[in-house]
Design brief:
With 61 residues, the chain is mainly α. It is 62% helix and 0% strand.
């Protein structure tokens, strides 16, 4: 584990868990700040982030 990675890991551990599952139903209201999305990306993977962004875009309409 590189030094930069260690800091990121610690940051995630100290933060309270984000209450959004990987399988978010399309109708669910998910409001995530950009920082949370990025932290989430480390945990979930890129495809889940795209899904969340899509959900967010639909809500803002």
């Amino acid at each position: 584990m590189t030094r930069a990675n260690a800091g990121r890991r610690r940051a995630i551990k100290d933060r309270p868990p984000l209450k959004v599952q990987d399988n978010v139903p399309p109708g669910a209201r998910v409001v995530l700040p950009q920082r949370a999305l990025k932290a989430f990306g480390i945990l979930m993977g890129p495809d889940a982030i795209e899904r969340l962004k899509k959900i967010k875009k639909e809500q803002s309409r």
